[in-house]
Design brief:
The protein is mostly helical. The chain has twelve helices and no strands.
């Protein structure tokens, strides 16, 4: 298959390590896999392929947890997911029309935007107004299509509120799973969903499952304050790493 012949041993090793680290962060914080993984994959693959592969991995791992996510998620997650499904094709269309260098820059800036959003003061647990929820869904969909990263608008929407940790994580992961499905559907519609990318995702899935499980074990052993600190730290490191790779 073309994608396997195009990757050398170092690129495959980097993909494996990135998948393990990114999935560990997902299990720990409830987000971060796409934010950490897609910029790394985009160094070895064309940005479109990196985004499609990231969405395939997010969908596969989300399907293993879908029952728990549906039970524990806040109802707002469904409204945001519906908007994500509607706007993801627009983001992917923009990605296809964008040059690789420009796409990598935008992907890095998206990662940085998530960190800046988490610096805002904490908000009450009540569901924000329709405009805020709608904006989160639309921006998440555009970012899903363009960068395979639905997280930047969604993480501050939930983690920036005084909600139980299990609700925050389940709500975010449900959205990310449905966003990944929308991203793959948009990729098929645009003709960029290839079988070899799906085979590579299946090959990386065991690594993803191991990393995610390790992250969940650690998450269960830390306090809420430590968990929120980890959320901010992950976003900050992801932003710095993504920007550093540009130079």
């Amino acid at each position: 298959m073309a994608i396997f012949s195009a990757l050398d041993a170092l690129q495959i090793a980097v993909a494996l390590l990135a998948a393990l680290g990114a999935s560990f962060v997902r299990g720990l914080t409830g987000f971060g896999m796409a934010i950490l993984l897609v910029p790394v994959l985009a160094l070895a693959l064309p940005p479109v392929e990196a985004v499609v592969l990231g969405n395939a991995l997010s969908l596969l791992i989300g399907l293993t947890e879908v029952r728990m996510l549906v039970r524990a998620a806040e109802p707002s997650a469904w409204a945001i997911s519906a908007l994500v499904a509607l706007t993801t094709p627009l983001g992917l269309a923009a990605l296809i029309l964008t040059g690789p260098d420009a796409a990598r820059l935008v992907i890095a800036l998206i990662a940085f935007s998530a960190f800046l959003a988490m610096l805002l003061p904490p908000r009450p647990a009540a569901v924000p107004g329709a405009w805020v929820t709608g904006a989160a869904g639309v921006m998440s969909g555009l970012m899903t299509g363009y960068a395979g990263m639905p997280g930047p608008p969604v993480v501050p929407y939930y983690a920036g509120r005084a909600l139980p940790r299990v609700t925050i994580k389940a709500s975010m992961l449900l959205i990310f799973t449905l966003a990944a499905l929308a991203g793959l559907a948009a990729a098929w519609w645009q003709g960029v969903l290839r079988g070899d990318l799906l085979v590579l995702a299946l090959a990386l899935l065991p690594v993803i499952l191991i990393g995610n499980r390790l992250g969940m074990v650690v998450s269960g052993r830390i306090s809420d304050s430590s968990w929120r600190s980890a959320v901010g730290l992950v976003l900050g490191l992801a932003a710095l790493g993504a920007l550093a790779r540009l130079f």
